[in-house]
Amino acid sequence: MSMTTAKPTQVQVSGAGYRNLVMATITFAVTFWAWNLIAPLGTQFAENLGLDSFSQSFMVAIPVIVGSLGRVPVGALTDRYGAKLMFPLVTALTIIPVLLLTVVKDNTVGVFIVAFFLGLGGTTFAIGIPLVNSWFPPAKRGLALGVFGMGMGGTALSGFFTPRIYDSNENLPFFVVSAALAVLVVLDYFLITDHPGRVVPTTPLGQRLGAAGRLKVTWELSALYAIGFGGVVAFGVYLPTYLKTWYGLDPTDAGTKAAGFALVTVIFRPIGGWLSDRVHPAVVTAWALGIAAFFAVCQAFDPELYPMGTIFLLVMAAGLGTTSGSVFALVSQVTPQPQVGSVTGIVGAIGGLGGFVPPLVMGAIYSNKNSYAIGFMLLAMLAMAGCVYAYGRMRDIQPDS
């Protein structure tokens, strides 16, 4: 009797749940576009400002590390105040640095300072995960979180559209993104709603973060996400530079190719979530990281871009995108609902930091060795380590272990 009465609530999702999923995904995508505004224009900024390869890598990595670390307090604040407040607030604040790029784009110090505040756009991930998690039952949560994760396609939008709009008018991409953000502030205010059953924590922020940090699984998931999503972010911000420097593509063509890579990661993220609803997420993660590791080794041998290099990069994108979806399906399984925002913030932060380090490493290696092969081999080793750990340890994980 109890099973038959519980089943409908387990599988049914209200219209409000789907509405919140759609709005969260769109907002995530546009704020990620803002977060990634500098990367597709990195070569133009570097030429205008006279930056070397390492300085250019550092410039495009600044928003990544700020957005990543910012997810920790933003996730905890979402637990406390809800997504209905946090989504429009963070989106509105992101407009400020986007508009400031029109003023400081020819000033080195100004660009680096604005890049710091652009990181705010990368924190919306920690708002959307607990929101979507609260509206969808466990049987559908993996796919729903994967769909929300498609918002990281904002990097693909940025890679494709930003250079083209910039070629037309140097300030236009910043005005376009600011306008889109402003529209979403209004829409989010009226259309995003917190789940009526949401549990509001009453303990202080530091105590909640400490409790999340004491969970062993938080750090295990963080390590896996640093490899999967970190790889996605790293290639999103550095692939245009890699394609331009190594394969001699012009900035627009390099941005287009990078957008294709990002699009594949976007498509495979919900696939990772969908598979995780049917197979243990740790198994999905292990297979996906194993595939990414193999093709990273292949790319380390510097194949011609057409066709083999393109194939290797796209299959790597599929593996990393799948991992991004499966890891957060695992988060939703093992994290108590009131702590999802806090744990998401920490996991998302470490994942973003995983995207901060590789561009710096790739830039430094190329500056010293005139080769990217070592960077790809390092990625392969990390992905293989994650593959072994996910399969060997994470399949038997229990909540709060």
- Number-wise, the strands total 0
Give the % helix. Answer: over 70%
> N-to-C terminal Cα separation, in Å?
32 Å
What's the helix count? Answer: 17
The run of helices and strands is HHHHHHHHHHHHHHHHH
Spatial shape:
globular
**Low-confidence stretches at least 5 residues in length (pLDDT < 50)?**
1-10
Structural class: mainly alpha
Mean pLDDT: 84
Q: How much of the polypeptide forms β-strand, as a percent range? A: under 5%
Rg for CA atoms = 20 Å
Largest pleated sheet: none
Which key features would you list for this structure?
single chain, 401 residues, mainly alpha, 17 helices, disordered N terminus
Structure description:
α4 packs antiparallel against α12 and α9 packs antiparallel against α13. This protein has helices at 2-11, 15-35, 42-49, 53-81, 83-104, 108-118, 125-135, 138-149, 154-168, 172-191, 205-213, 216-247, 251-276, 281-300, 305-334, 340-369, 373-392. The two termini are 32 Å apart. By secondary structure, it is mostly helical. The model is unreliable at 1-10 (pLDDT under 50).
Outline of the structure:
With 401 residues, the protein is an all-alpha fold. It is built from 17 helices and no strands.
Q: Strands, helices and their partners?
A:
Elements: H1 2-11, H2 15-35, H3 42-49, H4 53-81, H5 83-104, H6 108-118, H7 125-135, H8 138-149, H9 154-168, H10 172-191, H11 205-213, H12 216-247, H13 251-276, H14 281-300, H15 305-334, H16 340-369, H17 373-392
Helix pairs in contact: 2-5, 2-7, 2-8, 2-9, 2-10, 3-4, 4-5, 4-6, 4-7, 4-12, 4-16, 5-6, 5-10, 7-8, 7-16, 8-13, 8-15, 9-13, 12-13, 12-15, 12-16, 12-17, 13-14, 13-15, 14-15, 14-17
